[in-house]
Amino acid sequence: xxxxxxxxxxxxxxxxxxxxxxxxxxxxxxxxxxxxxxxxxxxxxxxxxxxxxxxxxxxxxxxxxxxxxxxxxxxxxxxxxxxxxxxxxxxxxxxxxxxxxxxxxxxxxxxxxxxxxxxxxxxxxxxxxxxxxxxxxxxxxxxxxxxxxxxxxxxxxxxxxxxxxxxxxxxxxxxxxxxxxxxxxxxxxxxxxxxxxxxxxxxxxxxxxxxxxxxxxxxxxxxxxxxxxxxxxxxxxxxxxxxxxxxxxxxxxxxxxxxxxxxxxxxxxxxxxxxxxxxxxxxxxxxxxxxxxxxxxxxxxxxxxxxxxxxxxxxxxxxxxxxxxxxxxxxxxx
Length: 334
Known about the structure:
This protein is an alpha/beta fold. The protein folds into two domains: 3-193, inorganic pyrophosphatase (n-terminal core) (Alpha-Beta Complex); 199-326, Roll (Diaminopimelate Epimerase, Chain A, domain 1), CATH 3.10.310. It has helices at 3-11, 27-42, 59-67, 131-142, 148-161, 171-181, 186-193, 199-210, 230-239, 271-279, 308-326, and strands spanning 16-20, 47-52, 73-74, 85-89, 107-110, 121-124, 213-215, 218-225, 247-254, 257-264, 284-287, 291-297. A six-stranded parallel beta sheet has the order 3-2-1-4-5-6, covered by helices on one side. The protein has a six-stranded mixed beta sheet with strand order 7-8-9-10-12-11, with helices on both faces. Helix 2 runs antiparallel to helix 5 (148-161) and helix 8 packs across helix 9 (230-239). The radius of gyration is 20 Å and the shape is globular.
C-alpha cells in the first residue's frame, strides 16, 4: 500500500478536517494545504477548512491567495472541538511554527528535516525539495482529477519554493511540475509574478542594502523595524547576488520579535544548522542547507520602556555578533 492509499484509508469515515498551515505561510504550504483539502473531499470528508497564523504579507503571496480565490481562515477562528481530525502541512510540530501551540496533529505531511512527531499519519520526506511534490505524488497515485485552481497553485508553489529551480531542486520537483503543468493557468501565473512591491517592502530592502556588513563571503544586515516580514527573505535573495557573497543573513524587527532569513550557496554552510547554533537558545530557528529562518523575542534585549531606535540598534549588533560567531568569523567593528 502506498502512502497515498494509507492516507485515503485513514481519512475514510472522517466528517471534518482542519488543515493548519505554519505561520506566515508561503505558497508551498498554502498549495499543499489546498491539495490535501481536495484529497480529503475525494475521500468523502464533508467539511474541510484551512487555517493559518501570522500574516500573508509577501506581495506575491497576497496575489496568490486573491487571484486564486483561496479561502483561508485565521488561526484565531480555529476551535479544536469543531473537527474530527487536524492536519499539519509543511511543518511537523506546533512549537515555533504556529500560533496554535497547544494543538496536536493527527496528520503531518512535510519535507523539512525534523524529528517525526507521534501522531496517526506521518509522511516526512527531507529528500524532497517541496511539500507540494509529496501532495502531487498523492494525486498521481490516487488518480484524482486536478482542477485549474489547484494545478496553478501547485505549479506556482513548486517554482517559488525552489526559487526558479536553482536552490537544490530534486527530481521530485521536476516530475511534479511536469505533471501539474497541463492543469495550470499560465496567464494567471504571469500575473502573479508581476505582483508589485509595496513601498514598505522597497524601504525594508533598501535599508538592508545600506546596513550590510561583510566578512569574507558572508554578509549580514539589518532591515531595521519593518511591517514587511517577507521583505527579509526577498532582501536575502537579492543580496546573495552580490559578487563574492555566498551566505547571507537579513533580519529585522517585526512587531515584538527579531525575524531572520538566511540564504547560502556555500556547500560547506548549512544555513539551518548555523541559525540553530546561533539563536536556538534564545528563540526558534531552523531550515534547510540553502535557506533558513529564525525568530527571537525583542524583549530579550531590553524592557518595553527602552528607546525604540536604541533597542533596534542594540539588537542588531547582538544578532550580527551571534551569526558571525556561529560561523567562526571575526566580528569586526560593526
